[in-house]
Amino acid sequence: MNLLKLRRAKLATANETMTLTEHLAELRTRIVRSLLAVGLGVIAVLAFYEPVLDFLRQPYDNLCERRPDLVTNCDLFSLGPLDGFSARMRVALYGGLILALPVVLWQIWRFIVPALHDRERKYAIPFIASSVLLFLAGGSLAYITLDKGLEFLVAWSGSDVEQAFQITKYIGLVALMIAAFGIGFEFPVLLVFLQLAGVVRPRQLVEGWRLAIVSIVVLAAVITPSGDPITLVALTVPLVVLYFVAIGIGHLVVRRRS
Fold first, then answer.
1. What residues are paired with 166 via a beta bridge?
2. Torsion-angle region of residue 227: left (phi > 0), alpha (psi -120 to 50) or beta?
């Protein structure tokens, strides 16, 4: 008990002696490292732009092959001299952010870790790894279901409407879908963190499951850019499952801590 009190006293003293200038310098270092990681990711995506673009347009190609009656022209159009350049830079930026995600999360964690105790610091690797894996899982699900969402949107536009997708808007839709699903899949990580911090208890989350499901449906409807029911269901069902998984993980960890 005395050792624990001594350790906490040392942590408190270290935090008190760290000035505002030192905090800002530390924040600047973490931001610079994150930006460097994003920059390297952007360069890597630019170097492989053509394969990445083929990968992103694959859902559109799948729709063209499956429903030639809906989409007769499967080309992506550039409606201005800057559209091609804008599309290339968007792909590079989005891809760079995804590639740099582990580094960015690690820098965020390293910035806040001095304020944490030893028992809280040991969750760094599990939280970062689970955040990256869940984001990739959400982005993959968005990519898999994108052609179904496109089919619904194209069908509802009417049979007399000829489809011609602008490359920048198509890339923007794909990026927003992947980001929406990826960020949505981070929801259970937040729940586990809140349970470990003692903000909420597992019993409270179980008792409020009805309100939670309604909130998840509303959240999924808000963050999905396409707004089609297929995408809504594809995001809502996994989030509901992950909600109860997060409760179970939080219960086990809190019980083990007790």
1. 77
2. left
Residue located via tokens 């610091």: 121
Residue 72 CA, chain-centre distance (Å), reads 33
Spatial distance between the Cα atoms of 134 and 140, rounded to a whole number of angstroms:
10
* Residues whose CB is less than 8 angstroms from the CB of residue 67 and which lie 6 or more positions away in sequence, other chains included: 151, 154
**Unique residue bearing structure tokens 């290339």:** 88
* 3 state DSSP class of 116: coil
Task: Check: CB of residue 99 under 8 Å from CB of residue 44.
Answer: yes
Q: What is the C-alpha to C-alpha distance for residues 46 and 62, in angstroms, rounded to an integer? A: 25
Q: pTM score, two decimals? A: 0.77
Tell how far CA 180 is from the center of its chain: 7
Q: How many residues does the chain have?
A: 258
Q: Which helix (H) or strand (E) holds 232?
A: helix 229-257
pLDDT in tens, 27-68: 888 899 999 999 999 999 999 999 999 999 888 888 888 877
Maximum separation of any 2 CA atoms in the chain, in Å: 79
Contacts of 104 (CB under 8 A, 6+ apart): 34, 37, 38, 97
pLDDT for the residue numbered 209: 87
Rounded CA separation 155/114 (Å): 54
Q: Which residues pair with 165 in a beta bridge?
A: 76
Write the DSSP symbol of residue 225: S
Question: CA angle 86-90-96, nearest 5°?
Answer: 145
Using CA atoms, how far apart are residues 58 and 52, in angstroms rounded to an integer?
10
